[in-house]
Design a protein that fits this description.
Blueprint lengths: L6 E8 L4 H17 L23 H4 L4 H7 L11 H4 L3 H13 L1 H22 L5 E11 L6 E16 L4 H67 L5 H36 L60 H22 L4 E12 L11 E10 L7 H68 L4 H35 L3
Antiparallel strand pairs: 1-5, 2-3, 3-4, 4-5
């Protein structure tokens, strides 16, 4: 139960006051208003120290034999400037898809609307610092104490509702909390935009890889079907074994599986792109399917087997899509990430709420008043000489609330501690994302180069094995094994190229754009 103390500080009502008597209470009200906000009960907030090392440690790059190349790829410098997506994306088709996503993506639209809502909430909070004026017409009927008869009173004019004088800064700290929440929401919108650009870029790179995967599977299937048809003719003539025939059947089935997997993956990536951009992309706006392979001619036992050692991976269409991301080794770069900024602003809002909760434990001073015409008869309400005004001040303080106010202070203090932990966690997550992406710059490049060497070696082995089979120096099973190894090596090279580019996308996102 609450027992407030009501203190009437000033009450003045008159029908015909001199201007000087009207200015005295107004001067008092202005003086009280000027004192508002002088106190600040919110605790002093300092940005927590970064709970991560000051420099990114890259053991893989540091342990590399070519230290000069590692240093060139990862210069130890001050935090690099952010790279806007327009400078980072080079491919014109990808640029159009990113622009479409930024204009039509529903998640990003919700994030923008959240910012508008937070801005409106801030405006509503700022309005609490000013009085609310209204115009009203009232009629009262009450018994006259001296005559015992009912007396009527009519008033018309401006009315000042309960206006809290922010002497202890309660409203101001709530304004600060709303402002920090707006900034946090804006940072969340930028984080959503960053994620959308990264997701569209990743999907585009995947579509480029899908196109090569489909081309590779189609070429392999056409070649293996031709080889299978020839092997069947040879098996019917007794020139090869049933084991070799079944080996070719297995290779054809393997190529068909790879083709269907690539087609399904491309369809899923197209659906993902449509979801991100908010519209079904045009057929000519995304990486298209490769042309179908030429129809195989009827096999003949006297015709040589088609060459299966050619590769569709001699060129890398993923290489020129993105620009290099400037990245240093200073961990301060994490402070510009939108999610870290959002956590910091939420920490500021939680700290401001402590001040508002503390101020609620002290008296609240409010002003009420009105000014206008007053008369005992409605017909004389708007006649001259009937001007009247009232001004009242009130101080309210709770003396017993069963610990409710103190519990609110404790809750906001714990909320601030939670916000500190969330801020530190955001910094730690950002550190891990950036460290992993920086480490991947050198490791993925080295893996791609090694995979390219393996693919080239498997291609040469398949070519030499094919020549040996034609010369009778190797069996058909040797050629089947060589072809199988070649397809696996080329598929691995394609996936490694895609993973390297996706790591670059992750680095750009981890650095905050």
């Amino acid at each position: 139960m609450t027992f407030p103390i009501h203190t009437r500080m000033t009450t003045k009502t008159t029908m015909r006051d001199e201007p000087s008597s009207l200015l005295r209470p107004l001067t008092l009200a202005v003086a009280v208003a000027l004192l508002s906000g002088c106190a600040d009960l919110a605790p002093r907030l300092e940005r927590p120290a970064l709970p991560v090392p000051g420099q990114f440690v890259l053991p893989t790059a540091a342990a590399a034999s070519d230290a000069a190349a590692a240093a060139a790829a990862l210069p130890a410098s001050a935090p690099a400037e952010p790279l806007a997506w327009g400078d980072w994306v080079r491919d014109p088709g990808l640029r159009r898809q990113v622009e479409a996503a930024l204009a039509n993506n529903r998640d990003l639209r919700v994030a923008a609307l959240n910012v508008e809502r937070a801005r409106a909430q801030l405006d509503a909070s700022l309005a609490d610092r000013y009085p609310t004026l209204g115009a009203g017409l009232t009629a009262n009927s009450a018994p006259n104490v001296s005559t015992g008869k009912q007396a009527q009173t009519y008033t018309a004019g401006l009315q000042l509702a309960s206006w809290e004088i922010d002497f202890l800064g309660r409203i101001r700290t709530l304004n600060d909390a709303a402002r920090s929440q707006l900034l946090a929401t804006e940072a969340g919108r930028r984080s959503a935009e960053l994620s959308i650009v990264a997701a569209v870029t990743q999907t585009w790179l995947a579509l480029l890889a899908d196109r090569q995967a489909i081309d590779l599977a189609q070429r392999s299937l056409a070649s293996r079907e031709q080889t299978l048809a020839l092997t069947r003719l040879q098996a019917q003539a007794g020139a090869t074994s049933v084991l070799a025939l079944q080996g070719n059947v297995n290779l054809v089935a393997q190529a068909r599986v790879a083709l269907q997997q690539a087609l399904r993956q491309r369809a899923q990536d197209l659906s993902t792109l449509a979801l991100l951009t908010g519209a079904q992309p045009a057929a000519d706006a995304v990486p298209g399917l490769p042309p179908p392979p030429p129809a195989a001619t009827a096999p003949n036992a006297n015709v040589a087997v088609a060459d299966t050692t050619g590769s569709v991976l001699t060129e890398d269409p993923l290489a020129g899509v993105l620009a290099d991301v400037p990245a240093g080794l200073d961990a301060r770069v994490l402070l510009r990430r939108p999610d870290v900024v959002q956590a910091e602003r939420q920490l500021e809002a939680a700290n401001a709420n402590i001040g508002a909760a503390r101020a609620a434990m002290f008296p609240r001073i409010t002003l009420t008043g009105s000014a206008g015409q007053a008369s005992s008869q409605f017909s004389g309400l708007f006649q001259g000489g009937n001007f009247a005004w009232t001004l009242g001040a009130q101080a309210l303080m709770t003396i017993f609330d069963a610990g409710r106010n103190q519990a609110n202070v404790n809750a906001t203090t714990v909320g601030r501690d939670i916000a500190v932990a969330q801020y530190e966690r955001a910094v730690q997550s950002a550190f891990k994302d950036t460290a992993d992406a920086l480490d991947g710059l050198s490791t993925w490049q080295a893996q791609r180069e090694a995979q390219a060497e393996q693919s080239a070696s498997a291609r040469e082995i398949a070519r030499l094995t094919d020549l040996r089979v034609r010369a009778g120096a190797a069996s058909e099973l040797d050629r089947l094994d060589a072809q199988r190894s070649l397809l696996q090596a080329e598929q691995a090279l394609l996936q490694t190229r895609l993973a390297e580019q996706l790591n670059r996308v992750a680095l750009w996102k981890a650095l905050g754009g």
